[in-house]
Amino acid sequence: MAQRIKTTISGSLPKPAWLAEPEKLWAPWQLQGEALQQAKADAMRLAVDDQLRAGITVIGDGEQTRQHFVTTFIEHLSGVDFINRKTVRIRNRYDADVPVVVDRVARARPVFVEDAKRLRSLTNQPIKFTLPGPMTMIDTLFDNYYKSREKLAWAFAEILNEEAKELAAAGVDIVQFDEPAFNVFFDEVRDWGVKTLERAAQGLECKTAVHICYGYGIEANIKWKQGLGDEWRQYEHVFPLLAESLINQVSLECQNSRVPMELIALLKGKDVLVGAIDVATQQIETPEAVASVLRRALQYANVEHVQACTNCGLVTLPREVASAKLAALAAGAELLSEELGLR
Ligand SMILES: [Zn+2]
User: Fold this and answer.
1) What's the gap in Å between 178 CA and the centre of ligand 1?
2) pLDDT tens-digit map of 247-261
3) CA quadruple 198, 209, 135, 116: dihedral positive or negative?
């Protein structure tokens, strides 16, 4: 008898208004110094509490200690100038002020390991910790040193691997790398994208995941999606490569998306984190809508390999909306678990 369907979030949750400006990407912090450190720790406790109360089973930190899922990690590295930023176009979609690579990149000290220890102390349930993937990192900065996307990706992969190993040692059960760039740069994914991802995940003693989505619910992404046609087959390029890789889990976007569900059959043997919560709308999914997406996924993947997840991070949503969506996610997974007689 298979276990009940697990639930998890892809990464971010909204931050309290006393920590950062709500419903905004790259929202500035509202506090400084020691007060900011305490506020981040408090916010992580609330994020964990929200997930536990909703009935989520694999718990994340809600990315409460980072301003952004990519740039915050980069800002902790040497070789990167984060004061004199440059404007770049991210994944060919929208402009952002990003740090500049000015020298060989290196990780002088752990970036999120203290956060991971804190998360570990807050729950006995399995915990997942997110890091940006190498390709998405290089796409979120300006490179004035390596002058080669591939070389820089390999450099980041080594740094990520050091960080990921320390996260695992701190008690993290799953390290997830976020690679939305995998949905855009298919030739690079084939040539070195998956290889650099595997380098980042090499030798880890915990499970590994990769999250590939169609982005946050911001206007630039919504417009991009409108131009992708009736069927989104981007995953078809990437999934066969991931099926051959050492990565254990793949998190993808399904709810309200035009991704043909049969593409998950390409991930044979992997855990599939089925996106059953749309992050681009404030409308709360019903448990039945969540269950319905999962039911469709079960046509192409074994139940032991299916988990219920969000399409992407919830950071840009109001807190009460995010909480209600988490509850719907857990209720939908329960509904289906009951229906299937899972224990
Ligand atoms: Zn995402």
Assistant:
1) 7
2) 999 999 999 999 999
3) negative
